[in-house]
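User: Hi! I'm working on a homework problem where we have to compare a predicted structure to a textbook description. Could you give me the structure for the chain below?
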Amino acid sequence: MSDIKKNIKVVPNFPIPGVSFKDITPILENKVLFKKALLQMADLFTTHFSDVDVIVGIESRGFIFASVLAFHLQKPLHLVRKKGKLPPDGLVRVISQSEYATVELETQKGKGKALIVDDVLATGGTLKAAQELLEKAGFTNAGSLFFINLKYLNTESHYKTQSLVEYDSPVSA
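Assistant: Happy to help. Predicted structure tokens:
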């Protein structure tokens, strides 16, 4: 097991009964592990997404990884936010059902090949909404990059998706 994965804290029955929350706080608090994780994600980018024009961060924890990767890879950062967080000019929005609630995502118009970066791929609802949103906003989908993929929750194939850490079951190592 990688030292990154073994430092992700698994919290059973949080935030609701039956959910096995993957707490990445121990990684973020450890400068060596955080740097290692981001450099490994940058390697995934270089291997699979080198032709990307823009890095897209999904609110909120996706901003952590997307902003550092955009800086490290010398790519512009584009944000996907919850309703009411962006100025209204040129705004595009979609309504999505996430793992816990209905959310309305918004972004500004743009162009280029966009790579979606987020912390966790769970059921795929937020990813699908973000892909739809970016397409409506004028971007081309180049794929997605996640810190964690909860493979047991997303059986649907997602276009060109990579992840650093994968879980095959709620409590798998």
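For your comparison, note the following. The chain has a mean pLDDT of 92. The chain is about 30% helix and 35% strand. Good luck with the assignment!
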